[in-house]
Amino acid sequence: MQLIDIGANLTHPAFHADLPAVLERAIAAGVGSIVVTGTSVPESTNALKVSNTYPQTIYATAGVHPHHARECDDATIPALRVLARQARVVALGECGLDFNRNYSPHPDQEKWFAAQVELACELQKPLFLHSRDAKDPFTQVLKQFKNLPPAVAHCFTGDRAELHAYLDLGLHIGITGWICDERRGAHLLQLVRDVPADRLMLETDSPYLTPRDMRPQPKARRNEPAHLPHILRSVARALGRPAEEVAGETTRNARAFFGLP
């Protein structure tokens, strides 16, 4: 099986000491490509640098996470425009709204989310989206744009109403190890069946969201792309389908979505 991890935070300090070994384990596990998430202009720049260092495996996104919206200024969108035009930057984001942690004021989040969606429409670059406790304002921002490029609701953890609101907008859905958490993610075992086969993708969100049911648990509970097959198997069981089939579909979806070779 060849898998694509559509969201991994490999510029995180947790990977500074052993990234080559992390990538070796991922490749050995069948994860052939990894999209590294940009969460600010500096981190997006770092994601591109990592991608250029490991061009056989890593691609990058460029965006500002809602947690960092308060840091945006007049230089932010021009900087993202330059990054987004680089060949190895395959999507704009991670951008969206997070009304759970509220690290940035809601007006700032909405302003800079809309600005990044506008940029994606201008460049017709895919969108890597974040939404937490913000379904209605999140969908309202997206509905403002008539020429929305392909977009994925990364790390979906919501309920049925939220899922169908996103599907109605044409969004793809990214599933993480949250589906492996019997405390918080059991509802996803049912909901994942509602996702059209051609709009489902898989991700680890490393180093976060280590699958809770992995045995043994990894050291320091650090998640990494090599754990994506575990998430695949959980999704396949929930769908009642062979893991090989789900692997093939989700990989084809990711290649088409991000324009990967």
Give descriptors for this structure.
single chain, about 260 residues, alpha/beta, TIM Barrel, 8-stranded parallel beta sheet, 8 strands, about 40% helix, globular
TL;DR?
The protein has 9 helices and 8 strands. The protein has helices at residues 19-28, 41-53, 76-84, 106-123, 135-143, 160-168, 188-191, 228-239, 243-258; strands at 3-8, 31-36, 58-62, 89-98, 127-132, 151-153, 172-175, 200-202.
Structure description:
- Helix content is 38%, strand content 16%.
- The longest helix is centred in the middle third of the chain and has 18 residues, at 106-123.
- 50% of the residues are buried.
- Strand 7, helix 7 and strand 8 (200-202) form a beta-alpha-beta unit.
- The chain has helices at residues 19-28, 41-53, 76-84, 106-123, 135-143, 160-168, 188-191, 228-239, 243-258, and strands at residues 3-8, 31-36, 58-62, 89-98, 127-132, 151-153, 172-175, 200-202.
- The radius of gyration is 17 Å and the shape is globular.
- The chain has a single domain (3-258), classed as Metal-dependent hydrolases (TIM Barrel), CATH 3.20.20.
- The chain is of the alpha/beta class and 261 residues long.
- It contains 9 helices and 8 strands.
Question: Which helices and strands, and how do they pair?
Answer:
Blueprint (H helix, E strand, L loop, with lengths): L2 E6 L10 H10 L2 E6 L4 H13 L4 E5 L13 H9 L4 E10 L7 H18 L3 E6 L2 H9 L7 E3 L6 H9 L3 E4 L12 H4 L8 E3 L25 H12 L3 H16 L3
Helix pairs in contact: 2-3, 3-4, 4-5, 8-9
